[in-house]
């Protein structure tokens, strides 16, 4: 059981944390025909836009209410109204997703009230969904904004059923955490569909930010979960939530529509994927496909091959709580020592990590704890610390802007875990020093190097020969 501590520094020197509204905006990008809108200054939106473009290397739909100092003090009704009306006319989205920021939350804007007034003044917007999520960036972090937004989408588009609905036994809802890439979602879809089940992902970044080229330009999201698909989530037989951050969304769906859920803390590693495969086999009534038995065997063999290189390695991790728990737990199972773990926000899952301490801090805290490490694992902003310390960096999480293919990285399932073993194991192997005559001898051995005086032991051995 880990002890969770909070850094006592007066400020974040090299921030690890990303804000709630950025997480909320990314969740909206997993919805079809959506336009995320940040209610705040232009700078807040510009920051998020640049971050997402650098990570996914795609066109990102993201708008702002462009609050000025005066508008912030007087209230943002006019700015929200103007933004919503202009977006509706120009982009014609199916949904506008509004996330608050620190500026407007400090003022205390009643955005839900604003939306009611806007709908009264503009009945032409009745067909369009408008969802508001309170995501102040002076509290919580990226995964909190993501989780709250998914819960709000469920409240807005999944009908509340007072009586139990007719369940479709083959239909399954999947609520992926923000730490899963579009590639991870594709892998999960393939696994679930192999059991004859029909998954609905919310959000579904694999449809919008997977890097495909659209036939026609659209100013809104390119794909993702449709309103119709969200409205039918209440008739699914089960909900699968991935990551503690999705517990709120899963319980919201259960409360509204009575859909039972199972939550997987992680899907990286052998045991968690065994549990997933067993669960899917049970609810589908089908035997496990042969391909997964083969993939499991390949993973076990990879673990056997890799544990020689992972054993006793010192690894430090800086990531969102769910990603930290998934990767950290798997590393420990591989025999590595997680000597430092730094995260961004509180989460119930942190205490389950089998290390002494988890620190809620920044990248400076991670750097100070990585001086004797064999590997640092965090996003691309950790590259300077890696260079200063001379410790290799494995890029993990968002943003990863100095490598290609960040959206297709795979960490879930048997195949994703196997890929991690190979990628990280190869980094450890590349650090190993080839032996030479100067390194064959242990320091405590009384044997001379070439050109020195022979030791008594060597003289005796020579005489005997």
Description:
The chain has 465 residues and is α/β, with parallel strands linked by helices. It folds into three domains: 19-140, Nitrogenase molybdenum iron protein domain (Rossmann fold, 3-Layer(aba) Sandwich); 168-290, Rossmann fold, CATH 3.40.50.1980; 295-431, Nitrogenase molybdenum iron protein domain (Rossmann fold). It is 43% helix and 15% strand. It is built from 18 helices and 14 strands. It has helices spanning 20-28, 42-56, 69-74, 77-90, 102-107, 111-121, 142-157, 182-193, 227-231, 247-257, 270-284, 290-310, 321-333, 363-368, 383-389, 413-431, 437-440, 456-464, and strands at 3-6, 34-39, 63-64, 95-100, 129-133, 168-176, 198-201, 236-242, 261-264, 314-318, 337-343, 357-360, 375-378, 393-395. A six-stranded parallel β-sheet has the order 1-12-11-10-13-14. A four-stranded parallel β-sheet has the order 3-2-4-5, with helices on both faces. Strand 6, helix 8 and strand 7 (198-201) form a beta-alpha-beta unit. Helix 1 crosses helix 7 (142-157), helix 7 packs parallel to helix 10 (247-257) and helix 12 packs parallel to helix 16. The longest helix has 21 residues, at 290-310. The radius of gyration is 26 Å and the shape is globular. The termini are far apart.
């Amino acid at each position: 059981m880990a002890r969770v501590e909070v850094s006592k520094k007066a400020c974040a020197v090299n921030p690890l944390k990303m804000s709630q509204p950025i997480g909320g905006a990314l969740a909206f990008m997993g919805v079809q025909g959506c336009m995320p809108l940040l209610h705040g200054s232009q700078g807040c939106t510009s920051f998020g836009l640049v971050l997402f473009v650098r990570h996914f290397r795609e066109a990102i739909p993201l708008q702002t209410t462009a609050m000025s100092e005066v508008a912030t003090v007087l209230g943002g009704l006019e700015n929200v109204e103007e933004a919503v009306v202009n977006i509706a006319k120009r982009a014609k989205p199916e949904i506008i997703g509004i996330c608050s920021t620190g500026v407007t939350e400090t003022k205390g804007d009643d955005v839900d009230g604003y939306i009611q007034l806007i709908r009264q003044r503009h009945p032409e917007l009745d067909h369009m969904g408008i969802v508001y999520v309170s995501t102040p960036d002076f509290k919580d972090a990226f995964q909190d904004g993501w989780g709250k937004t998914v819960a709000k989408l469920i409240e807005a588009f999944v009908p509340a059923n007072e009586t139990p609905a007719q369940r479709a036994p083959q239909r399954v809802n999947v609520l992926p955490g923000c730490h899963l890439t579009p590639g991870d979602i594709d892998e999960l879809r393939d696994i679930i569909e192999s059991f004859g089940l029909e998954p609905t992902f919310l959000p579904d970044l694999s449809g919008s930010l997977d890097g495909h080229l659209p036939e026609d330009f659209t100013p809104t999201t390119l794909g993702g979960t449709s309103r119709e698909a969200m409205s039918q989530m209440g008739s699914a037989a089960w909900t699968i939530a991935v990551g503690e951050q999705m517990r709120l969304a899963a319980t919201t769906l259960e409360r509204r529509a009575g859909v039972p859920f199972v939550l997987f803390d992680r899907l990286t590693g052998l045991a968690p994927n065994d549990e997933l495969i067993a669960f899917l086999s049970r609810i589908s009534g089908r035997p496990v496909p042969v391909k997964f038995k083969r993939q499991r065997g390949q993973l076990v063999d990879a673990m056997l091959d890799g544990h020689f290189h992972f054993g006793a390695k010192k690894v430090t991790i800086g990531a969102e709580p769910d990603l930290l728990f998934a990767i950290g737990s798997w590393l420990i199972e591989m025999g590595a020592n997680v000597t430092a773990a730094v995260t961004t926000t509180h989460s119930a899952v942190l205490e389950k990590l089998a290390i002494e301490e988890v620190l809620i801090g920044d990248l400076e805290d991670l750097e100070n704890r990585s001086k004797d490490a064999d590997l640092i694992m965090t996003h691309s902003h950790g590259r300077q610390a890696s260079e200063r310390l001379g410790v290799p960096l494995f890029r993990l999480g968002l943003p990863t802007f100095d490598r290609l293919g960040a959206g297709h990285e795979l960490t879930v399932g048997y195949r994703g875990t196997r890929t991690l073993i190979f990628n990280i194991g190869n980094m450890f192997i590349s650090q190993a020093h080839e032996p030479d005559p100067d390194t064959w001898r242990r320091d405590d051995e009384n044997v001379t190097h070439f050109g020195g005086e022979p030791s008594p032991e060597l003289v005796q051995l020579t005489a005997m020969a």
